Amino acid sequence: MNLIKRFISYYKPHKKLFFVDIACAFIVAVCDLFYPIIAKNITNVYVPNKQLDMLLKWAAVMLLIYLIKAALNYVIQYWGHIVGVRIQGDMRRDMFKHLQKLPFSFFDENKTGAIMSRIINDLFEVSELAHHGPEDLFISSITLIGAFIMLAGINIYLALIVFAALPVMVFFAVKTRSEMNSAFKDARVEVGEVNANVETAIAGMRVSRSYTADAHENAKFGVANERFKKARGRSYRAMATFHSGMNFFNDMLYLLVLVAGGLFFYYGKIDTGDFLAFLLYVAIFMKPINRLVSLFEQLQEGMTGFQRFVEIMDEHEEVDDGLIAPDGLEGNIAFDDVSFRYVNSDAADEDAKVISHLSMKIDKGKTVALVGPSGGGKTTLCNLIPRFYEIDSGKITIDGIDIRDMTRYSLRKNIGIVQQDVFLFNGTIRENIAYGDLDASDNDIIEAAKKANIHDYIMTLDKGYDTNVGERGIKLSGGQKQRISIARVFLKNPSILILDEATSALDNATEMLIQQSLTELAKGRTCIVVAHRLSTIKNADEIIVLTKEGIEERGTHDELMRLNGIYAELYQYQFRE
Questions:
Q1: To bridge 345 with a disulfide, which of 62, 289, 352, 573 should be the other Cys (CB 3.0-4.6 Å)?
Q2: What is this structure's pTM?
């Protein structure tokens, strides 16, 4: 019931247009009830009594009714669908806004293609239900009630015989509905899996081509596609059972009316006009039955889509319980007995912790490098500072303020991140740099590009800053994308800078250019550097060696080399030649 209430709530902003649609539908349903009455009078009165003028007059009335119906059906078809599209748009807007507030853990667990399927495919079915559902239900109800009243006016006993078949039809429809619902939901899940496979395959097309893995990708897609076909087959089997059963009941109802009506006519209980009108009303009576049959199918599709929409909408957003919103932070960072494990880890397993009882301090304006073997928690530590994930215990403070007491907005506004895997949006270079400060002027954007050593290259392009970078920046080299991301951070001008293997994917020559930009960027900021290339961090104020056991070593490059421990071994391994 709660699901239906939530569905209905989306009609409120569009209630005027919705009621116009329903009013038109009501008038159309009433118009349909006139034809059998006029046919009855023509058969019983006007033709036998040779009243040609009345026959023509009522024919003109019918023509007028049909013209009105045509105009109203246009309103229903156009504006009714507009209501559905607007409701779909509202749901899509709400889902997109909600996705922006979900924690990173949600996106770790859910595939991009599956989320896209919910926001596009599922909501299309919801929009069809939003338009046709109430309209078909309303028209069917009016037509059924009107047809019963008219049938009862002809012969109450014959009307009751016809309506006695309804409970059996309703029972059958309800009985088969649950199977349809389950089958359609499974099909929706598989559609999401197919979308996820397609999205991944297209994004990784260059990798699969370079490894000549097209056969593997086809096979992988084929598995998901076969699951989808089977799930869709089950849903169509359930739908076929429903449709064939309802059509059988329709045919039996026609047979019942023909036999019962024939007997009533035979025994003189009704006349020719009444029998004709009765047959016509039964035909009208069958239209809402058939409409309701289609509605059940649409209901399964639409409500399954809405359920999947609600599942995402019920995902818990990031809790922004912080009340402090500092304008600027100096950058004194402290970890106090911090422990963290990812949500899919075993909560009872101490070894599942990525970070366990970590304590460390980073003074403002200092550059601290994090090194060590993979799995030691370096990147995780960087993700905890902007509060992308919630720690299990302990606390992280900046300038003595617990980051959980700050608003996420103010915290993240003071942190700039440059990662190895640069993400550029499909847009212009100007738009991508401006992401650092969406209110920045063109001069600010150009100045940031100059600091990142990318301005001169941009000016060689035909469209300069208005050059489109392509999806994920595919039209640019790795170094060019990296410098645009650095320009973005220059524009943001944060007090805390996180460099997560920012140059590890670049060649040596490009790395040297990027390193100059990063050195400029780090001036006057608290800088945390995650690096595998130890040559890039020799000048760091402090180097911390992180392993699964925690902090193993810390000190300057020279101090750690004299210690002759893990860092010295890593350094000598990289530069043994």
A1: 352
A2: 0.69
